[in-house]
Every structure is written in structure tokens, then in C-alpha cells.
Amino acid sequence: MANEERKTGKNFIIVSMTIFISKVLGFARDIIIASTFGTSLLTDAFQVVFGFPSLLFTSIGTALSSVNIPDLTKFINQRTREERNQYIFNLLAQVTILCTLVSLVGIIFAPALTRLWGLDASVYGITLTLTRIMMPTLLFVSLTFIVTGILQVHEHFLLAAAISIPFNLLIIAALIIKQADIVFLGYVTTVGWLLQFLIQIPMLRREKYRLTWKVSFADEHTRAIFRQLLPILLGNSLLQLCLIIDRTFATHLSEGTTAALAFGSTLFVTITSIFIVAMSSVIFPRLSAYCLELDYPGIRSLLGYIFKTLIFILLPYLILVSTYNREIISLLYQRGAFTANSTTMTALAFFLYSLAVPGYACQEIFNRLYYALKNFKVPMTVSLFCLTLKVILDLILYKTAGIAGISLSTAFCLLLYGVIMGLMIRKNIGTLPAREIAAFTLRLLLPVAGMLAVIIGFRFLPGSSSRFYFLLPLSGSGLVYLALSWITGLIPKTN
Prior knowledge:
The chain is an all-alpha fold. The chain folds into two domains: 2-442, no CATH class; 444-495. 82% of the residues lie in helices and 0% in strands. Helix 17 (377-397) packs antiparallel against helix 18. The longest helix is centred in the N-terminal third of the chain and has 38 residues, at 41-78. The two termini are 19 Å apart. The model has no long low-confidence stretch (mean pLDDT 84).
């Protein structure tokens, strides 16, 4: 178990660093978009047309990957290579056919879809064009996530984590070359998703996956995947669906609210997914193998390791975001068309969305466990309950509390989801190592106190009007946190 934890830790660090590089490029991409378009009606149109479907399509891709990884693990362990290849080809072929048909229907009925977005009539024409450009991304996103899951099963975590790097570079290049041409940006975004799929094909061939050219629509495994797709989509997409609901309500508020929510939520997801998605990606194949063997002690031990690692990382994140949310948004976005008012709205959304980070972590980890156990009903049921509550809360809050009420309700629903799932998981695998996790968290009090001391101490020093000044206490407090964690043994000392 110790060797496996070291291997998991090594893979986690490698994947986190790769995702970090990708996210830095994503930051640069969003900064250029914000500087070029600001929080205008044009930005609202792009964020609605590409933001909403991107969240939905990514959720579909994640669902396909989530149900495929346990099945592929079983094929690799218990079936022949030919049977494995036939299973994967069936899955890819049927997903291609289905997504192509849906995309064509979406293109044909784009005028009706455009009216559903609820945007101002002045941007109807460009919204219609963007909607038609966006539709093929359903196919490319789905194929990308399926292949990424296959590579993760074979422990090719680095390539799977790196595929969005060329995607972000492509969009940045498009923004530099064409600047405010949002239609061109739409085409490049769609092509970028295709590129993410294509760059994984050589590694797929290296693992001896070959086209069989025999599609069996009666195959029981692929049919089971499509039956399980909707429950997984509903269960594994709570955060994404909450963000879609938020932006839908925001279109009825003042200009720029949708864009501010998009920038704030994107930054939150971008930073936290570096660690949460990296961890869930690395451990899911191992979870699937443990569940296949019904190794419940191994599952509980792995979950304890996961949550201790995430608490260690995400606790200082919450402290720093609570303290410096406005400064972070100002530094990253406030330039060009992105004004001080844009910063105020986006910083508030960023801070309140960040309160959802414990629930987001639970969504990623607990759901992966349930899917490895082939239990799709529990995540779906709890997610539907929280989504219903989310809609009710937004209906109550969006007019009176505006952007704050919308984003805070998302944080509350994610936290509630985490609590419910944590209580229910015991029925499947037994009691989690709660005392071990609690003891680890208590040991973090000293490093946290050190962080707060640095943050408070800098408040008594002569202030600075520089936008970069806050980086001193931010980085200083982080270094103190790490140093005290190392001294107290929370970070293992290497020989």
C-alpha cells in the first residue's frame, strides 16, 4: 500500500504540474478574451453559446469516460485483446454516429436554439452563427474524453493531462491574429477540440488498439453504457449544471453579469481542477481495480489518502481567495475593456464559487467510487435533489441578491451534496477513516496559523498602491504554510 501511495503521489504531482501549465495558458486565453471583449453583450453571447454547451458537452464526455474506465479495466484483466479492441471500436463508432446526428439536428434547428439563449435581439445574428459553429464540438469533446479515459487506464496520465495545451495556444494565436473577430474565435474553438482528440491517436495505436471495422449495435456492453449515460450525466455534473443554471438566470440581470459569472467560475474551476481533476484522474483506474476485486479496506485507505492530500492543498486556497479575491481578479483581468466594475462583479462571483470547493472535491471523488462500484442511482438521485433545490434558490435570490445570491446558492448546493454523499458511502464500503482525516486536519492548524500571521502582519506594513503588492503576503504566507507543514511532518521528509 505504501508503494502504491508513493506511485499515486508521483503521478499526482506530474499530472498537477502538467494541468498547471495548461491552466496558465488558459488564464492567458481568458485574460486576452476579457481584455478584447470585456463584459459586453458580445461577450455574453460567446459565453452563452460556447460556455453553456461546453459545460454540457464536457459533462457528457466525462460521463462516457467514467462508465468506460471500469468496463475497460475489466476487459483488460479478463478478456482478450481482440475483445477489448472490439469493445472500444463499438463505443467510438456508436458515439460518432449519435453525436453527428445530434450535431446536424442542432445546426438545422439553430434559430430555435438561439432564441432559447434569451440574449438581446441586437446580437441575434452573431449568436445564430456561433450556435451553428459550436454544434460539432459535441462529437469532438465526446471522442476526446473517451480516448483520454483509455489512456488513463494504461497510466498515460501525462498526455491525457497535456492535450489542452495546444488547444489554448491555438485560441491565443487566433485572438492575437484576429483580435475582436468573435466568429473566427468560434471556429478556432471548435477546431481546437478536434485537435485534442487527434493528438491522442498515436498513443492509442501504441497500446495496440486497432480498428476492427465491425460495428455491433447489439453489443451488450456499449448498450449498457448508453443506458447508464443519463444517470452518470446527472450524477456527475452537479457543478457544471449549477453553472449553466446560474448563467441562464444571469441573462435576465444587468449587462455583463453572465460574463462576470463566467470569468469568476472559470477561474475557480481552473485553479481547483489542477488538483481535484488530477487526483480523480490518477486514482480512478486504481479505484476501478479495487472495486473489481471487492477490496474495501484498500478503497477506504485510498480515500483517506485522497482527502488528506486535497485538504492540505485546498485549505490554504480558501484562505488566500477569501483574503485576496479582488486583487487576484484585478491583476489577471482588469485591462482594456475589463473595467473596475467588471472586477467587482467577477471577484464576488469568484469568492463565493470558491466556497463550493469541498463539495466539488466530493463530487469528483465519491462519484468515481460509485461508478467503479456500478452504482449509478445514488449520485443521480442526490444530484437531482440538489439541482431542484438550486433552481428554487435561484428563483428566490436572483432578483433580490443578484450575482451574490446566484453564486452562493451554487456553493451551498455543492456542500450539501458532499455531506449527503459522504454519509451514504458508508453503506457501500464501510466507515471512512474519519478520525485519521480529522487528526490530519487538526495538525494543519499550526501551518494555517502561520499563514494568517503573515497575512495580518503585512497589513501593518506601509501599504502600496501597486497591483502586484498583494503577491508578497500571498506568496510569503504560502511559503510559511509549506515550511511549517514540513517541520511538523505533514510533508514527508525524503531521505
